[in-house]
Amino acid sequence: MGKIPDLIFYQTLPVLKNEKIADKFFILSLQTAEMARGAFPGQFAMLKPERSSVLLGRPYSVYKREGDILSFLYKIYGKGSRELSRVKSGEKINIWGPLGKGFQETSLREWAFVAGGVGVAPFLFLAQEAPKNISMTLYFGIKNKDQAILQKEFEDLNCKVIFVTEDGSYGEKGWVTDAVKKFLDQKLKTQNSKLIPIELFTCGPRLMEKAVAQLAQEYHLRCQVAFEEYMGCGLGTCMGCVVKCHNGKEGQYERVCREGPVFMADHIVWE
Ligand SMILES: Cc1cc2nc3c(=O)[nH]c(=O)nc-3n(C[C@H](O)[C@H](O)[C@H](O)COP(=O)(O)OP(=O)(O)OC[C@H]3O[C@@H](n4cnc5c(N)ncnc54)[C@H](O)[C@@H]3O)c2cc1C
Ligand code: FES
Fold first, then answer.
1. Is the omega angle on the peptide bond into residue 261 within 30 degrees of 0, that is, cis?
2. Ligand 2 in reach of 237 Cβ (< 6 A)
3. What digits encode the pLDDT tens for the residues 37-88?
4. Which domains are assigned to the chain?
5. Does residue 99 have its Cβ closer than 6 Å to ligand 2?
6. Nearest bound ligand to CA 240?
């Protein structure tokens, strides 16, 4: 985990399956032994239908690996993702990857994933690849019960799922970060030490990620953040995806597509 890929592949492949799983949410699968072999949780690929009116590919996290098959969970936002949703089984898409550095290794044995909406995508692959003795919980912030997806997929990997809805229509009501805070306070009450041995991982809207980074600072936790920044090339050359980081020099920027998309939360200058 956590290293820049040795090899990046550019392929044109037939889609195995492109299935709608909820309103605006789809899972697309492809057979690619080369990319599947080299991919780490937290890495992504650029996808673009072979027949497309958009110029640039769109970045999507690897959601699942099953042998030679890689799957991507995506949500329709604009033109690129809408075109992707219209691709039928057997039609071809261009894909290049795996890209970026994935999640870093950690010696901590309790992991909490904090996801907002489709930001849940990289955590299934991470749960798939987790060592056997890890205790995992997904705090999944969604708008309403129509978006309560993937519970079985995570539970099958021994990852507990706690849904938090903005309108209270499913699971706990409120913000996902409130549920995480409640859990951390509970942990502190039941243990002697002030240090909680938990690794946080977060992916979702920037404001949610910032709030999780603040929690990590407050509770002295390690926290890994996966960004879903806008991208151009995805290959490290256009500088269209930079984030401001603490790296010894004032105002230094790093590329989400190359040095990221996963960063330690305390490495980021949250603005
Ligand atoms: C490393 C990385 C991994 C990613 N992984 C995933 C993933 O696994 N699944 C997934 O669904 N998305 C993921 N994304 C986000 C995804 O790439 C964008 O949603 C996609 O590029 C949108 O393209 P589009 O052409 O459909 O929308 P555009 O035409 O580019 O945008 C249309 C409108 O939607 C808004 N919009 C676009 N993307 C987002 C977003 N992510 N959040 C909020 N508003 C947005 C724009 O502001 C604009 O108003 C990832 C991004 C990165 C950088
Ligand atoms: S998208 Fe071009 S440098 Fe990151």
1. yes
2. yes
3. 999 999 999 999 999 999 999 999 999 999 999 999 999 999 999 999 999 9
4. 9-99 (2.40.30.10), 110-228 (3.40.50.80)
5. no
6. 2
